[in-house]
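Course assignment 3, question 2. Fill in each field.
Student: A.L.
Task: Predict the tertiary structure for the chain below.
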Amino acid sequence: MTTTMAPYTTQLRAGLAMIEETRLLLELWDEGMESKQLYSVALDSGHFPNMSARRLRNFVEKCFTPRYLRDPAAAPFVKGLSGILKTNEFSQVLFIFTCRANEILADFVRKVYWDAYSSGRQEITNEQAQQFVRDANANGLTSVPWSDDTIQRVASDLTGCCGDFGLLENGPRTKRRIQSFRIEPRVTTILAYNLHFSGLGDNQVLASDDWGLFGLERDDVLGELKRQALQGKFIVQTAGSISKISWPCKSIEELIDVIADR
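Answer field:
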């Protein structure tokens, strides 16, 4: 989804990928439930025994809510998928929503990770991550000017989150090996439909910045969708620079049924 530039924040401090914790919260979340009510339900559930009440509140309010509750369509969509996707597929869906809520992570992935990957480099160091954050701070992209300590912590969060989502080697390290990271076929379908359901036109879907999170440009996306079209998930027609996509699924519920059957 193409977005306007938002100030970089330290919001990742509240939680990095949090894949299993998010799955648990989605199980507890019901339609119409807001952040405070969800926190109360989660606290009473006993599903988070290793989190203090303060840590759980922080996770719900500053991690889960920006990713899945600010857009009313997000939580129902992701919850519907949580029970039918494989672990790696579900992780990639959460990766998309995490990047949408954290512009600094999205830009780090698109500008630092994929640049390193395409250049054939083997690793990304903490210093490279810190330089990215320093440059952002110097260019006025942060919500407020950050101290050196904050820059170091945010840089660590960026590489740690990439480790959690499988872009980089996991674990506390001063440098992390770059992992092979390719969008899963069903996630291609899910993302395309998610963009379509958000109101984007066909060519806007193909040009969305979200594909850049997986190192894909417009022609790459078109190729991926044409491959999915062979399975009946889309009908793709192209004429020059204009593409027309027919969308067999007319609702989120229909899409989830189709994904579950594959």
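Instructor remarks: The chain is about 55% helix and 5% strand. Residues 11-84 form one domain.
Grade: pending
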